[in-house]
Design brief:
With 584 residues, this protein is of the alpha/beta class. It is built from 21 helices and 15 strands. Among the domains are: 224 residues, Rossmann fold (3-Layer(aba) Sandwich), CATH 3.40.50.300; 141 residues, Trna Endonuclease, Chain: A, domain 1 (3-Layer(aba) Sandwich). The strands form 4 sheets. The protein has a 5-stranded parallel sheet, with helices on both faces. A 5-stranded mixed sheet has the order 11-12-13-14-15, with helices on both faces. Helix 11 packs across helix 17.
Amino acid sequence: MEFYLQEKIGNPELFTGRKKELTFLMNWVDKIKLRLSKSMAIISRRKTGKTALLQRLFNILFQNNTVIPFYYEIREKQYNLIDFSINYFFTFIYQYLAYKLKEKKYLSYIEIGSFENASNLAKKGGFDFIHTYIQNVERLSKEKTELVWDAVREAPRTIAAFYDEGILQIIDEFQLINKMIYRDNDMKQCINNMAGSYLHTSEYKHAPMLVAGSWIGWLMSDLRSMLPGRFIYKFFENMPENEAIEMVYKYSQIEEISVAEETAYQIAKISEGNPFYISSIFYSMCPEKDLAFENGVLKTLDFETRNKMGIIRATWMEYIMYALSEVNDNNAKNIVLYLCNNRNRQVSRKELKEKLNLKMNESNLEKKLQSLVNADIIEQGDSNYYYQGVQDNIFDKVFRSKYEDDIKEFNPKDIIKEYQEMLTSWKTKYYEIRGKYSYAKGLFSEYAIIDNLRARAYKNTKFYNKITNNTPDDFQFVKYKTVWSYTASPIEQNELQVDIFARADDSEYSIIGEVKNREVAKFSIDEAKNFFEKANYLIKKEKIIKYLLIVFSISGFTDNSIDFFIKNNIAWSGNEEWLNFNKS
């Protein structure tokens, strides 16, 4: 797919999985066309990939030609109301015109555009109503009237209604809207009820809102108090195990950092499917980082947890210090520490008062605890009487290591020991599931072959040709533009999944591959036909000019499948040398 909005994730290939979430959102978007979709809030813990998901959704919709996407991120930057309104308006207008006029370059005008330029583009494109709307917003902004925000906020749903179309308003970091907008240039009069201005706007189903934020408690509090009944809530979890393992392999391949089968599984498990943890482990500055070995993973985790240069530690500490300052209570740290040390169970207010000798009444203690819940550094129990530490393998260790001097008889080696016990347990578990389920073996096989195609095959094309049957006489492995598995966009009706797609220049052979790593059943004629059908769909969809189809099966092939390969010029291999990876 083509990418219009630059995604924060960087290399688009790093985006992994989220098939369930994207499918859900695409079904919800489809109902916008029928005026059936109510505004929605994505509820998810910090650093779980919400922004990556929202930006990918924008790029999918931008080329879908059904619902027009509008994406806006509220930044941690103080604005006066007029400047914020103008920035918000330009973002919408230039995204809208880029979509309608199919001019990607207009997205670059958002930061440097002007009322005159936007007005001229609208008039040139035949959008007279938008041309008039832009002039009205310019007039209001010059008059320095707060009515400009009303006009700007209503622009997406008003324009959608005029042209009888659907617009999706995606607003990221929505919780900041009550913290960063001021009435005056001196930034002294914060508008702490800005979210409430959407009370009317969010009800329109031809231009519903999709909002997300980094603080669950904070976002939920604003929505419930200022926008009651206006949003439905969709809770997003961390990635499932198979997607987390795939992400580990992707980072390993793209960042050229070796992993082994068992360490890939260990990283996926210790991260609990959190994309931030996985990326931080690969980007870590740990001098002893060697992710191909368990001890190297352990040292990297310890560095990321306790060293000031650790990406995970630095990010969490910025978050924790801000949260504690917001709560503004001397007992907050001790409460969080106690819950961290007892995070496997729910703790009552009575126990906290007694164990921590808290000198406050029940009402004040409940308010303090609720503030910590809103700050996302503790969790609510089954009722307002019970509380629990954050259920996260890494967060509580970062917190404990930061305040280790406050914990009697705390030994930093306890954290290393805990990590060691987890890794050992998951290593054992990995070999159990590897024997039962094929997906772990399949993912490893795909990764190993991809790694060879990316880094080695073009350097030793004679050898890899030798271990692959039925390649054309003029075939050469080359240095491919991209190499990874291929999944069709959720907007496609065909749920296409191809194990390997190595894209070459038009003059060279691109490779489309199928991988089966199972011990008994041979690759069958039905599987061959199914792969051939998928490959031809991909070829047409991606406009591939020159290509070679290859099937890899460790258990071999049926005779009629090989006949099918020969008839249709498909190459095949069962040679285990394709599974030797990360070797020069």
